Amino acid sequence: MLLRLLLPMAAFVAGVVLLHQQTSLPAASSLPLLFLPGLLAMSLRRTRMLGSLLLALALGICHASWQARTRLEQRLPAALEGQTMELRGRIEGLPQNARNGLRLVFAPDPGQQDGLPARILLRWYKPSITPVPGQRWQFTVSLKRPHGMQNPASFDAESWLLQENLGATGTIRSGTPLQDSRLSAPVDQLRSLLQQRMETALGHSEYAGVIIALAIGEQSAIPAEQWQRFAATGITHLVSISGLHITLLAALAALATRSIWRRIPRLCSRFGAPRAAIIAGVCTAIIYSLLAGMSIPTQRTLIMLLLAALALWQQRPWPGSLIWLAALALVVTLDPFAVLSPGFWLSFLTVGALLWAGLASLRTGARWQGWIQTQWAATLATAPLLLLWFGQLPLYSPLANAIAIPLVSLLVTPLTLLGLLDPSDELLQLAAKLFGWLDLVLQQLAAAPHATLRLAAPSAWALLLAAGGVTLLLAPRGLSGRWLGGIALLPALTGSPPQPLADGEFAVTVFDIGQGLSVQVQTRSHSLLFDTGPPGSERLLASQFPTAPDVLVLSHNDNDHIGAAAALLAQFPHSTLWHSLPSHHPLLAGRTVHSCTAGQSWEWNGIAFRWLWPPAGFSGSDNASSCTLLIDNGHQRILIPADMGLPEEALLLADALPDIDVLVAGHHGSKNSTGSDWLAALQPEHVIYSAGYRNRFGHPAAATRQRVQAQGSREWRTDLQGAILIRGGRLLELHAWRELQPRYWYTAGNADSPDAP
Questions:
Q1: Rg of the chain's alpha carbons, rounded to an integer?
Q2: Which residues form the Metallo-beta-lactamase domain (predicted)?
C-alpha cells in the first residue's frame, strides 16, 4: 500500500526533473499525447500500477512545462533591451550589498509598459540612500533580458534568474522614493530592521555577516574568502537558517510549552499538553522560516514538520519515507523550478539518507559512534552531487561538521536569536566570538594538505550507479551484498577525467568573464592564466585550477584585465608573474616578477610560448603596452594581444609573423583594433571576441566584425556563446560552452536577439 503512494509521487518529481533537462520546451499541442501510454496501461488490470506511474510522470512534465512557458513569456522582450525608461513600483525583499552598490528586486506597477516583467533584478551603484523593503520608488533604469556568464563547472545565473522568477535585470540611473502610507511587506520590513540592529550591535566584527545570516537568512554580507573556507570544509549549509536549526528550535519550543502547560491544571483541562506543544513547535517553525525568507531548505523543513505535526495531531504514525517524499512532491508542485537548485537536492537527499539509514539504528551503539555514522550517511549521500555541481569534495567535511553542527546549532544560533531581544548586545557579540573560534578550526582544516579533492563531474550513468550504491551502503546491516554499493560508487567518485593532453597538445579556454579578458592555457603538465578579468572573477577562476597555475600574466594596467588579480595572487602566491604594469604597481610588491618583453620565450611539453609585444624599452599607454603572447605547437598557433590597438599592430607587422589559427580579438573587438592589414597578415581561421553582454562600449564593434567577416574568419563571442574551448594537437577543435550544455532557458544567441551572430 505504501508503494502505491510513494512511487507515483516519485514519478511526478522525475517528470519535473526530466523537463528541465531539455534543450527546448515541447510544443503545447504535443503535451496531451504524453498521457496516452499511461491511459493505455491503466485500461489493463495487470499494468495499472505502471499506468499510474506513467500518468504521474506525464503530469510532472506537463506541470513543469506549463510553468516554464509562463515564466519565459514574462521575460523582457528583446526590443526593450537597452532602453532607458521611468518605472514606478515597489521594493521586494531585502536590498543586498553588492560590489560598489546595492542589488534589489523591484516589482513595477502594471500597465506602464507592454511586456514589462512582474519582477526585475536591479543594481544601483553608489546609491545616496538605501531603499526599504515594501517602499515605493520611481527609478530611471536601463534593462536587459536575463543573462549570465556561462563557463565550465560554474554558477548558471540564467537558471537562478528563472528560479527566482526575475524576467529582466537592469541598472538604476537615478531613483526617488514615493509617498505611500499603506503597510506593505511587514515581514521584510521586520527583517530589515533586525539586520540594521545587528549591523549596529556587531560593528566591524568580521563575522557580522554570519550572525545576520543565522538570524534572518540574509547572506550577502558574508565575505567571499569566508564562503570559500566554508565550502572547502563543507559547512555552508550551517551558515544560514538551515533545516537543522528550524527543527531544533521547534523541538525546544514544543518541549518548553509541554513542560509549562502540564504544570497549569486549568490549561490542561481545556486543552491537552501534547497538542499545545505541537502548536507551539509549528508556530515557532513558521516564524523562523519567515525570518529566513522561505529559502528552499527552509520550505523543505517546514513542510516536513507540518506533515509530521499533522500525523501527531491525528495520532496516526506516518512512515518517515512518506513524510519525506510527500514534502518533496509538495515543494516541487508549488515550485517546479526548485529542482534546478543544488541546495534543493543536497537538502532533501541528506535528510532522505538519514531516514533510510534509520536514525534509531544509528544510535544502537555509543553516542559518538552514532554521530560518526550520521556524518557518514550525510557525506556519502551528497558526495556524487557535490562532484557533479562543484567538481570537488571537501575531504574534512565530516570532521568539520562534527565540530560545527553542535556549536552552531546549540550555541551560536540560540545566542543569536536571544541576542535580538538583548538590549546590551552582549549575546550577539558572544555569538560572533564563538563562531570566530570555530573559524580558527576551519582555517586549519582548509589549509591542511589535500583538504579538497577535485575530480571530473560524473556522467549520468555514473550518477545512477552511485544512487544505487548509496542505497546499498546505507541499507540495514543484515542485508547481504551491501559491499556491492562501494563498487557502484567508484565510477562517480573516480570521475571520468577529460582526455589527457599529450606532448604537443594544448587546451585553451577563453572564459566568459563579462567585459574583460581571462584565458586559461593548459599543456600536459603545466598551466597558465592570461589576465584575471574584472573584480569578482576570482571565484570562477580559482575553481578552474586544481593546483596553482605555473604562470600568471597581467597583460596591462586595466581593471577589466587585472581586477581579480589581488585575490588570485593571494591564493596562488607561488605562480610566476609576467606583466607590463608600472614598476610601482602594488600588485608587484614583494614578488619576483618578469616583464613580458618581445623575443622572450619558453617551452612546455612541446608547446612554444613567445612574447611578441611590447619591445624592450617601449613607452606607451597601458593598452599600447599590452603583453602579446603567441602559443605554437608546430601545427596550430594562437595569438592573444590583450588590448593592443591599430598603431601597435602596424608596428608589429614590420616583423615577419606566422599565420594564426585562432586570434583573440584585441581590445574585445574595439573598432580601434584588429585592423584589415593585421587580419590579412595573420590569416586567422577563427577570431574570438571576449566582451560583456550588451556592454556600454558596443564591443565587438560593427566595423571590426565587418573586417573579420571580409577576411573569411569564423567569429566566436563569449557574450552570446559562453566560454570558448579550444583543443590543439594534430587537429584543431573549437567549441562554445552554450552549445555543449544547451538549456531551454538560455536567452543569449536566440533567434530573437538582435545581437545573435
A1: 28
A2: 515-693
Handedness of CA 114, 115, 120, 126 (dihedral sign): negative
pLDDT tens-digit profile of 606-633?
999 999 999 998 888 999 999 999 999 9
Q: Which residues contact 30 (CB under 8 A, 6 or more apart)?
A: none
Residue with cell 592564466: 529
Q: Report the DSSP pairing between strands 637-640 and 628-632.
A: antiparallel
Amino acid at 571: Q
Here the cell at position 693 is 553582454
Report phi then psi at 675, rounded to 5: -75, 170
Chain segment 548-598, per-residue pLDDT in tens = 899 999 999 999 999 999 989 988 888 999 999 998 899 998 888 999 999
Q: Which residues partner with 594 through β-bridges? A: 578
Co-location of 469 and 401 in the same domain = no
Q: Where are the alpha helices (DSSP H) in 580-690?
A: 646-652, 676-682
Dist CA 277 CA 86 (whole Å): 52
- Number of neighbouring beta carbons within 10 Å of residue 306: 16
As a whole number of angstroms, the distance between CA 465 and CA 203 comes to 50
Q: What is the CATH number of the domain that holds 589?
A: 3.60.15.10
d(CA 738, CA 152): 10
Q: Report the number of distinct structural domains present in the chain.
A: 5
Q: Where are the beta strands (DSSP E) in 224-285?
A: none
Tell me which DSSP letter residue 52 carries. Answer: H
pTM value is 0.86
Classify residue 286 as exposed, middle or buried by CB count within 10 Å of its CB (0-12, 13-18, 19+): middle
Q: Report strand pairing: 101-108 vs 84-98.
A: antiparallel
Centre a 10 Å sphere on the Cβ of residue 67 and count the other Cβ atoms it contains. 16
Q: Which domain holds residue 130?
A: 78-184
For residues 554 and 579, membership in a common domain is answered with yes
Question: What whole-number distance in Å separates Cα of residue 305 and Cα of residue 312?
Answer: 10
Same domain as 95, residue 40: no
Residue type, 472: L
Nearest residue to 473 (alpha-carbon basis) of 345, 353, 371: 353
Closest by CA to 398, choosing from 387, 383, 410, is 383
